[in-house]
Write a structure and sequence with these properties.
The protein has a single domain, classed as NAD(P)-binding Rossmann-like Domain (Rossmann fold). About 40% of the residues lie in helices and about 15% in strands. The chain contains nine helices and eight strands. α3 runs parallel beside α4, α4 runs parallel beside α5 and α5 packs across α9. The radius of gyration is 17 Å and the shape is globular.
Length: about 280
């Protein structure tokens, strides 16, 4: 059997790093993505053993997403699993070079664009895993009149919208792409990582710490368990579902709107200038 290959975005810390560590130990070729090559190389050194390839891209920049996909297509003949794991949470509203709110750009558009760019490179029976969150339950729909949340920005609203977008994308992919690729959205749980703690106001950092202590939390390894399970389970998992603790479950009712999902798909194509071909 040829060595299986996985690309994991946001794999230099937290859930992504633990996913990379586990798959490397199981003999996979792990394409380990970080925002910078230095961070990716440091993560490779920390894991220490296995077939690990450091890659770098600033996923808020669409040109960098395209360059990352081109590198993967050029240097790696097969891709068995794509794990869209990278995520950010920002206290203040920031815009990318394309004029898109940064959380939405990283947490959703990068997932959409990278998946589309690698679509033809995925092996038969490949799996696309998108790390979402139960935070999507806070949204009753997408703010299509203002996806960048100008004038009503809040870090929680922005993050929740991006996570609803993750689930809507997975469900719409399953409807549109009649191939044998499996796509799953994943709820990792409330995990003790550094998301919400870097580059944010002291009040928001405190709120994240208090929330984790009051609600309990998983370790990063526990948060990675569902991603690892779906990547490696021998029996092909059912596609187009929302997973938590290695089992499918219902997502919020707002995520099942086919009209919202179709509109998000069209807006994503417009914002990336990319026509997604399954």
């Amino acid at each position: 059997m040829p060595q299986k290959t996985v690309l994991i975005t946001g794999a230099t810390s937290g859930i992504g790093l633990e996913t990379a560590r586990a798959l490397a130990r199981q003999g996979w070729r792990v394409l380990l993505h970080g925002r910078t090559l230095e961070r990716a190389e440091a993560a490779v050194a920390e894991i220490g053993t296995g077939t690990l390839v450091p890659l770098a891209a600033e996923l808020s920049e669409q040109s960098a997403v395209r360059a990352l996909a081109a590198t993967v297509r050029r240097d790696h003949p097969r891709l068995d699993v794509l794990i869209n794991n990278a995520g950010v949470w920002n206290s203040t509203r920031e815009l990318t070079a394309e004029g898109i709110e940064r959380t939405f750009a990283v947490n959703h558009l990068a997932y959409f664009l990278l998946t589309g760019l690698l679509q033809s490179h995925l092996q038969a029976g490949a799996r696309v895993l998108c790390v979402a969150s139960d935070s999507h339950e806070q949204m009753r729909g997408m703010h299509f009149d203002d996806l960048s949340l100008q004038g009503r920005y809040h870090g929680l609203r922005s993050y929740a919208q991006s996570k609803l977008a993750n689930v809507l994308f997975c469900y719409e992919y399953e409807r549109r792409c009649t191939n044998d690729t499996v796509i799953c959205a994943i709820q990792p749980g409330l995990v003790q990582t550094d998301i919400g703690l870097k580059g944010n106001t002291w009040l928001h950092r405190l709120a994240w710490r208090v929330r984790r202590r009051m609600s309990g939390h998983k370790t990063a390894a526990q948060g990675a368990a569902t991603s690892i399970f779906l990547a490696t389970v021998a029996d092909t998992p059912p596609s187009g579902l929302y997973w938590d603790d290695c089992r499918p479950k219902q997502s919020h009712s707002s995520s099942y709107s086919e009209s919202e999902a179709a509109r998000l798909w069209e807006e994503s194509e417009r914002l990336t200038g990319f026509t997604f071909t399954c």
